[in-house]
Amino acid sequence: MAWWPLIRLLPKKTNFTYVKFAGFAAFLSIAAVAASLGSMFTGGFRDNPIEIYQNASGSPLARLGAIMERGYNLGIDFRGGVSILIEAPGPIDQEELRALGQRAQEGDVEVQGTTCRPVNGPPYCAILNFETAPDQADTVEEIRDGLGVVAEGARIANVDSVSAKVSEELFSGGLIALGLAILLMLVYIWFRFEWYFALGGVLALFHDVILTLGVFSFFRIEFTLTIIAALLTIVGYSMNDTVVVFDRLRENLRKYKKMPLGELVDLSLNETLSRTIITGCTALFALIGLLYLGGEALSGFAIAMIFGILIGTYSSLYVAAPAILMWGVKRGREGGGNTREVPQTAG
Amino acid sequence: MLQVARWRVILVAVVTAMGIAFAFPNFVPEQMRAQIPSFLPKQAINLGLDLRGGSQLLLEIDTATLRRQQLDNFADLMAQALRDAEPRIRFTGRGVVSDAARVRVTDPEQMDAALRMLRPLGQSQATGNDVATFTQTPDGFIEARLSETYMRELSRQAAQQSVEIIRRRIDPNGTSEVSIARQGDSRIIVQAPGVADPEMLKERIGQTALMTFHMVREVSPEESAAGQIPPGTMVVQPYPQSQGTPEVVERRPRFTGERLTRANPSTDQQTGEFVLSFALDRQGTTQFCRITRENTGQRFAILLDNLVLTAPRINEPICGGTGQISGNFTAETANNLAVMLRAGALPAPLSVIDERTVDASLGADAIESGAKASAIAGIVTFLFMVLAYGLLGIFACVALVVNFILIIAAMSMIGAALTLPGIAGLILTIAMAVDANVLIYERMREEAGAGRSPALSIDAGFSRAMITIIDANLTTILAAAILFQFGAGPVRGFAWTLSIGVITSVFTAVLVTQILIAWWFRMARPKTLPI
Known about the structure:
The complex is a heterodimer of chains A (about 350) and B (about 525).
Chain A: H1 22-41, H2 49-55, H3 60-70, E1 73-74, H4 76-79, E2 81-88, H5 94-104, E3 109-113, E4 124-130, H6 139-150, E5 155-162, H7 164-192, H8 195-218, E6 222-223, H9 225-255, H10 261-293, H11 296-327
Chain B: H1 6-23, E1 46-47, H2 49-52, E2 54-61, H3 63-84, E3 91-97, E4 100-105, H4 111-118, E5 132-136, E6 141-146, H5 148-170, E7 179-183, E8 187-193, H6 199-206, E9 211-215, H7 221-225, E10 233-236, E11 247-250, E12 255-256, E13 260-267, E14 274-280, H8 282-294, E15 300-304, E16 307-310, E17 322-329, H9 331-343, E18 350-358, H10 360-414, E19 417-418, H11 420-449, H12 454-486, H13 489-524
Parallel strand pairs in B: 1-19
Antiparallel strand pairs in B: 2-8, 2-18, 3-4, 4-6, 5-6, 7-8, 9-12, 9-15, 10-11, 13-14, 14-17, 15-16
């Protein structure tokens, strides 16, 4: 059936040796994780954490929290406060806007230029940020009434007002959700495979989440509620990838009882490589489309997911599977209680 | 080999047909939806506020006020119980301190008897649950503290009541699309699609709107400023813009706004200013008649949320059960007040803890770019599958189209809101949906490469890949389930599309492609697999 020129991304059989590079990969991963953690505690290597700690007040835990807060460019969901997006057909006088903000509400006011909607929106826009959300006051109303001074025909396109209470809840809720997700994956793999598989998989998850967090911290990409959703999806995707490899590994463990473990891991990774690449590529291309067309609101999500998929694929190949080698595998007795011993012979 | 059970074919056919029926309303313009025959579904996908534009307010009940009110009541109950005791138990200092209601038993000898009398109050007669616990202090006080479960229960009740009251306030005719729901024990979420300026909502929600009628005690301003006011009275400030003056009034209201049966804005026939006319129920009418007869010549004050609206002099007994309140109103404030009074008072003040407003054009933009990005994702995935697997890739693409239809249908059917992150989830799902097909086809390739016949390779491809597919997709479902638990509005939309997408993609990737391949195989009888 040669009527269709099938394009093969990979030769039919690949013989990459992953295990040989596992040591180097481990070094690389550990360095990257360390750098990510470093970035989280120093605001992307811009702040001195000891200084922040000394200047902050409250319990040691609260001071530590202050350091972590500086580590990210937190979005309104987690920072709390008011954020107002203003659009206008003509240039916006930022100084007037700041003055208007100060009249409307006491406290820290910040005016921030931003990229406008590419297609259907007016050409000029700005964001007005207040550090604290008012309880019942008419801040937004005052801004709305006073906008005429700032630019002709200016109007409010978007308002987010989040009280400190809600932002704290969202933040801790996000952390709990991430922790819970990783824990659930651990239990799931443990249940479906063996404990050493579970440890390998969870090691890979921590690796992926920490590196993604590191990227967000280092490049000061706005950290919002949607990013938490992306992180959880990355956890799901990375686990998905790892499970496919593990499934094959388990199968091969039964099939080739005498093969050294290192070779077995290599074989399993090679056998699943084609799938890993095709699935990864479709997801990546779709996300790149999202990054360019999805508008600013989803660009953070797309960046997180693209990075997460790359790193998740890497970690399935170089972290999760080789990690199993560290603990060794009980051979002979089959895992998972499956009694099918010998693969059926070809028919 | 390669027989597909008849029930599977029927299942796929039925599900796909239903999918098309449920997804259809999304693809016709809104005006045409009315023409869809009534036996077919008409419901289109419910767009989240971030896509259609509108306002959302998250309100929280002031539980501190609720607790104080409750403690105040409880102190009254305690006093009543001791008064009713036989022999009577003497007490002083009925009151509320921080988190406790308390009385002081005058005679230490009677302490035990007092505790015995009070204990039944600590248990709810309806449910038998603990309401409060009593403790005895060294200086002779009995203190009652409300239990946390009781407070939670109260707060939940108050939130539920508030939902109803808010509905009557902001949607008196029941015509708008506003959705109001209780969230947790003490929160209420109000979503108003298409409302670009939530100020009216906030004005009508922001006030408790408790109207009370008190007698005024005439005290000179100097005395009241010096704090020299008669026992049982309080100083109240004028209502904003009402042009009133501070007054000294009795602490206990003679009656409250609950007695109102009607409240309308109108104009005073003599002065022409806007007033609020009201009517009282039968009990209110008799009370009002008695009060005005006994106190002719004195003044009484009408308070709204403890601020003086007006304090007129009673010129003659008023027994008709109607009256009017002047408060220097405008047409708008009079109307607002009337709506709120008709709806009833909130059980406790509410505060806005989260507010989001999205302009409709911003949402329209998001939909447009989301649609473009989805189209790109679809095209890329199609290309990939056809390039990698040829004819079988086309089958996978057909499955993907069915999958897309099913996701749209499921979203329309259950009425889950599609949000901006939800669109991202949809795009991700489209790209990930082929994963199951990739797993199956890779398996087929391997089996064919090991020298098996096409039929056996296809069979083995499906059966062997199945375990992996289920393992791999369950992990995604787990992640989505957690998102759903934790997520606020938009993120929840993402969890919806992701989990629906995973389920439908396994269905289509496995069943739909299996049927397509079986049909093709029976017709073409290929000697080798085109893979």
